What does this fold into?
Amino acid sequence: MPMKLPNGYGSVTKLSGNRRNPYMARVTLGRDDYGQLVRKTLGYYHTRKEALAALADYNRDPYDLSADKITFAEIYAMWAERHSQTVSPNTTKQYARLYAACAPIADKPMADLKLIHLQALVDNAGLTPATTKQLKSMLNQIYQLAINREIVTVNYAERIELDKKPETKKPHIPFTHDEISALWARVDVSTVQYALILIYTGMRAGELINMRTADVHIDDGYMIGGSKTAAGKNRIIPIHHKIAPLIANFYDPNNDYLITPRITMFKLHYYFERDISGHRTHDCRHTFASLMDEAGANRSALKRIMGHAGGDVTDSVYIHKTVSDLKRAVELISV
It folds into this structure.
């Protein structure tokens, strides 16, 4: 039986029928001239837990329930407070950066905002296509909250059109020998360590982020991982002797993943822009291919390491032989 809420706190009622959001949260504002209770609905929610959370938000910091006065900034604050409890601190910071792009509409009442305002906001924000997509996603969630609170009735964020023009792809630029040497001179920086591991293994950035500790065999000098294609998955990735100390430094058998605490691809790209000027994460993979080619490495070995040929590696004898072959190929890199 649900716990009884304190007097004056508000109520949560489950409505009859087959509804998407059957739980109604209401608060009591007082009594009218005839002594009748004056109630206001906060919104409708999918679960009782969500409805109780809305009541808690209101009682912790009562806000003006007049829909025509509530601003975008106020709704964002409500959304951000609850959303921050379910995501990482880094994601919370990213949403704060996205909110900064919403300055032109922050002080406007939600009820006055139309699609034309949101579309202009997105079009003029000056963000990358990927970040613009994140902004639209955030706006969509904020509007869902506003609809639940009966502040607006239409989710205009769903109708925002993103630029359909393909993003001009920048060419991948391999690191020069001098640039690699400069990275080794800054090896105490974590972003540089990620870059060096990528350069000497040929892994994709996402493959490094998702490398499980159980698949890292430090003593035997290899890892098993990969993604994207059938040939790329579960492939042998030799550990070059120069990055072995870096791998060992990250390695902790108590962690599920090699790179802990976990980072997102977005964050890794951000780190590269901040710490490694002029290069992106995928440049590292191209650098590995170039270094192997310069060293005269066997083309078949290069394809296997990069996941362009081969397949699953499950037989222990096969693994032992292949690791030896591929490690000899990788060790040809002398930079």
